[in-house]
Amino acid sequence: MYQLIVGLEGGLGNRMRTAAATAAIAPHLRGKVAALWTSQWGMECRFSDLFEPYAREGFMLRDATYIERIIAARPRPRNLFLPRLTNRLFFRQVLYNEQVLPLFRENFDFTNWANAHCSLLWTWWDFYPWTDIDLNALFRPLPTLQQRINERCASFTTHTIGVHIRRTDNQQSINESPINLFYQAIDQAIEHYSDTRVYVATDDEPTKAAMRQRYGNQRIITAVAAARRDSVSGLQDAVVEMWSLAATSHIYGSAGSSFSEIAARLGHTPFTILSNKKQKT
Asked: Nearest 5°: phi and psi at 142?
């Protein structure tokens, strides 16, 4: 039995940072630790569809087994919250995402909590400090995806910057990171280096069109396919997008999205969140 099981929630970036936090806390716990990947709305794929297997002594990052998808399932409206019963039956203590952030802000000791009993934690929050080393060790794209990443980055120059413009369902990004802020950042980069190229990562096709119209096809590099997060192929595209962003010289990201922040951590890349409230680096 595991000392701690962490169910990964949210999108790709959130899952990656939570897995990194789980890997970081594992050496401080008495028993085995597992970070479990399950298919959910917006992330309808398996870990093994995207990344190479990962395991080390005392810790595993992997797809949940059939039994784990029953006993450790996340209670949700569509399952009538019934997993609360199995969670309590098979685990001595359980925390869900809505409890994690308040506890984190109160400097809750997750290490002591997990060491006390067989524990289950569901979250998209990085509840324990982690490093870029943790992140890069855990996530290695499948060889077929790495080949696509290499092909996409082949046209990158020394002065290729990356912009991640999140739209669709992320209202904070829409409200706080309008496209004109990205235009300003790109214009400044071009002013410094006339050969600047721009890798555009976005889930919004009109944004791609606007970038091409303003800067031309020779300067803009972007995925041909529209971003999708409701299929295996769409999420494989997301991995290619993230690792391509990581290979740029500077990333400009959207407020309220972890995608570009995780890309920056993967590539040790300078990173700026463009926001009309406050710009963060």
From this structure: -55, 150
**Averaged pLDDT for residues 144-159:** 96
Q: Which of 136, 163, 184 marks a domain boundary?
A: 136
Structure confidence by residue, pLDDT tens digits, 47-64: 999 999 999 999 999 999
**For the chain, what is the total number of helices (H) and then of strands (E)?**
12, 11
* Count: domains in the chain: 2
Q: What are phi and psi of 93, to 5 degrees?
A: -150, 145
Report pLDDT for 194.
Answer: 93
DSSP letter string, 35-68: EEE--BTTB-S-GGGTB--EEETTEEEEEPPTTH
Q: Which of 110, 222, 204 is nearest to 166 (CA)?
A: 204
Please say if the pLDDT value at position 278 is more than 70.
no
Question: Which domain range does residue 147 map to?
Answer: 143-274
Q: Which of 154, 161, 148 is nearest to 219 (CA)?
A: 161
Average pLDDT for 247-253: 97
